[in-house]
Design a protein that fits this description.
Elements lengths: L2 E4 L6 E3 L5 H12 L7 E2 L3 E9 L3 H12 L4 E5 L25 H13 L11 H7 L17 H14 L4 E3 L9 E4 L2 E6 L5 E9 L5 H5 L4 E2 L5 H4 L28 E3 L2 E6 L27 E2 L5 E2 L13 H8 L7 E2 L23 E2 L19 H24 L5 H8 L2 E3 L20 E2 L7 H4 L8 E5 L4 E2 L3 E4 L5 E4 L2 E2 L9 E4 L13 E2 L8 H7 L2 H21 L8 H10 L11
Parallel strand pairs: 4-5, 4-9, 5-6, 9-25
Antiparallel strand pairs: 1-2, 1-6, 3-4, 7-8, 8-9, 10-18, 11-12, 13-17, 14-17, 15-16, 19-24, 20-23, 21-22
Helix pairs in contact: 2-13, 3-5, 3-13, 9-10, 13-14
Amino acid sequence: MSTTVCWCESQRIERHCHVHGWLALLFLLFVLGFPGNGICANAEETVADVVVYGGTSGGVVAAVQVARLGKSVVLIEPGRHLGGLSSGGLGATDIGNKSAIGGMAREFYHRVWKYYLRPEAWKYGTRDEYLALNKGRADWNKDETWWLFEPHAAEEVFRAMIAESRVPVVYGERLLGTGGVEKRDSRVISIKMESGRKFSAKVFVDATYEGDLMAQAGIAYATGREANARHGETINGVQPHREHERYYYYHQFSKPVSAFLKPGDSASGLLPGVGANEVGVEGSGDHRVQAYCFRTCLTDQLENKAPISKPADYDPLRYELLLRYYEAGFDKIPVDPLARMGTNGLSPRVFLPNRKTDNNNIYAVSVDYTGMNYGYPDGDYPAREKIIRDHASYQQGLYWTLAHNPRVPEKLRQEMMRWGLAKDEFTDNDHWPHQLYVREARRMVSDYVMTEHNCWRKQMAGDSVGLAAYGMDSHNVQRYADAQGNVRNEGNVQTEGNEVLQPYPVSYRSIVPRAGECTNVLVPVCASASHVAYGSIRMEPVFMILGQSAGVAAVEALERATTVQQVSYDRLRDRLSQAGQILAWPPPK
């Protein structure tokens, strides 16, 4: 039996060995049976009031909230790290109106602010020097929160929250791929791991990006894009004609680039990753998933820089589109923020403390591995692992190409060679992020599906469990050859959230399954939303908000001996307000 349990960072107990007989029982009783935590455990089974599956930011917050309310809880993380994307490289927080973020989500960003108050947190330059470089983002003393942070700093904050609340964390345990969920009538009784270990509870929270517990529990879900007609939307489904939008330029080919192996010769076949001219009918639904990438943490600080090597399986054809784009006149580094040149020649703005970046997709060919993730949401573990490896190989090869291929303009190569992986990040994974940016996988289908009408505030949920505050944002989902034989990207949607959208409420029913499917599972991450609405909701601060609300709802269901669907919203609203959640915009005075 493989066992890893964490009480806190300083007292972390990690064992990867086979423990037998009474030694296993003694070990688990000592750790999980600590006086006062209300958890019963033996070598085969752990029983708690609530089990949270998935150590994402939403999962951490859900577990901490349950513990703070006095109930026993176990947090299960299939990997080795807490925080999901928030500690996995996404340190330049995506959110619109920060004033809409309350509760434990705001507490997290306050703790980040306190982390960087310490002089020892600044290894390369001072805080004042950093703020001067980022003067457009320097709201340092505005509200005692900070939204730009290094990956290891985020994980330290999450671990501190876990430790203070004495939440047991079980690492390295993954839900059995088939038969991992035991149900009795409409209730989940227990979940079983690949190791054979069982976790039983009265309420479960699926806080994973993939929704594996949700799916095995028989809860309805969707993947891909709905047709506009499904929910009366306007920007869902296939979107081939969005050139009029301000942000579309940044993710589309602005110059003609042949889609064929031999330029202009359709008989030679298509380049890798390019589909035939079958883009689909505008507004129609399909199976395609918006692109994934890794949010790598790069630095130009010489003593903290690890070189980016050429992948062992490097395939030059993967980058032919990019190289042809350069030959057509493109002249940028297609890696954000390296693409955003500052006033001093090619020096980019440095987004994160200690001269680090959070890298994201920009322009027509970038870190998104477009069209290569369709099998991820419903894939088994080996299929997903292959997709993860392919994404890492592609992105690593992209960086190597930008630094070394002579078809890249020399000034760009020289600039790219200045950057490397930060040595003090992801130290157990060769400095590469441990978390793929799964922007969207499964989405629950419940009695309330959040749609673009909610995002535009044309439809308002009356049972708010928190606010979302970002524009609708979908990355491209496919590449295709147009009628002229040139490659086009499709699927990008970016409404101007900071300028148009106001914060809007997320419905409690969107994190609760239909009663006929399951009555004791909450789903705060793979929430019930259309593809385009999920593009607004899927931000890490919102996952923390929904995770906290799920934790409060779980406790309310336990205390009232009722189902998650029958939780009194009036009582839930009062408890959420007491916990600091902001439920309406503008907030009541």
